[in-house]
Amino acid sequence: MYTCLNATIYTIHSHRGGSGKSVLSLNLSLVLAKNGYNVLLVDLDMRAPSLYYMLREPPVRYWINDYLEDECGFEETLIDLADEFGLKGKFKASLANPDIDAIKETLGKSRRWEMNALKKLIRIRKTLGEEYDYIFFDTSPGIQYSSINALIASDNIILVVVPDRVDIKGALAFIKEIYDTIKTKSYLVVNKTPTPDISQAIEFGEKISSELKIPLLAAVPYYNDVVLSNGVEYLVLSRPDHPFTRIIESIADKITSLSQRSS
Ligand SMILES: Nc1ncnc2c1ncn2[C@@H]1O[C@H](COP(=O)(O)OP(=O)(O)OP(=O)(O)O)[C@@H](O)[C@H]1O
Ligand SMILES: [Mg+2]
């Protein structure tokens, strides 16, 4: 199996909320770790943290919030989940604190604080890069400072868009203003296509991809099972034949072949 000498960081981002960033970050992490890669998942959506609940509230000593506040080292925030999920590779997560006071605390941070937070994100790869093949940053939608920091600190961006004109228009503005400025390689996932038919979903995806001028990584239909299993069951582990699992596996394969090509 191919292993990186240094982790590749993917930031999962979107223009609007609810497009499926956290679902994609978690499921991609699980599939890559199931396939033997070492994966680190970081919840940088400190305004609306959800990975803690999606991971069924594991015991947490320190949050990513504490690391960014200089209250602990990054490694002290890590929760080891590989055994619980029976994964071949490493799977660790650094979670954002869902407590309402912690969320309030993240609002209105100074520019100086955010600059320090960026340095600390960059430091994650410097200290742990050799231990992991992939690091995923799950972010807040839009142009929150924390999301821009994540985009800057990453190698690749996965933009998650739903096939909704308003989301597409917003994403376009965004790409022009931000992605084109920071010049990080970006890929598109069109999520929640309103058809279960995979080839029709890909048609939706290709159209949006040519409008946004970002290569399409995948088109994912809307599945009731995804909503119903969120925070309860992990479809990609429990239902290998589910079409959602197959699509996430195909994204994981593309990601690993991208790493092989760029090494
Ligand atoms: N392909 C899909 N089919 C059906 N439901 C989906 C799909 N992808 C995500 N969802 C559902 O959409 C909702 C939002 O997903 P998720 O929390 O991953 O979005 P998000 O982009 O992280 O949102 P936020 O911006 O608030 O962090 C959840 O209820 C999730 O189960
Ligand atoms: Mg989310």
Number of strand segments: 8
CATH uppermost class: Alpha Beta
Name the CATH homologous superfamily.
P-loop containing nucleotide triphosphate hydrolases
Report the principal-axis shape: globular
Give the end-to-end Cα distance, rounded to a whole number of Å: 14 Å
Structural class: alpha/beta
Strand order of the largest sheet: 3-4-2-5-1-6-7-8
Gross CATH architecture: 3-Layer(aba) Sandwich
Quickly count the domains: 1
- State the helicity in percent bands: 40-55%
**Segments where pLDDT lies below 50 for 5+ residues?**
none
How many helices? The count is 12
Q: Largest sheet, if any?
A: 8 strands, mixed
Oligomerization state of this entry?
A: single chain
Bound molecule types: adenosine-5'-triphosphate, magnesium ion
Radius of gyration: 17 Å
N to C succession of SSEs: EHEHHEHEHHEHEHEHEHHH
Give me the CATH fold name: Rossmann fold
**Overall residue-averaged pLDDT value:** 94
Share of residues in strands: 15-25%
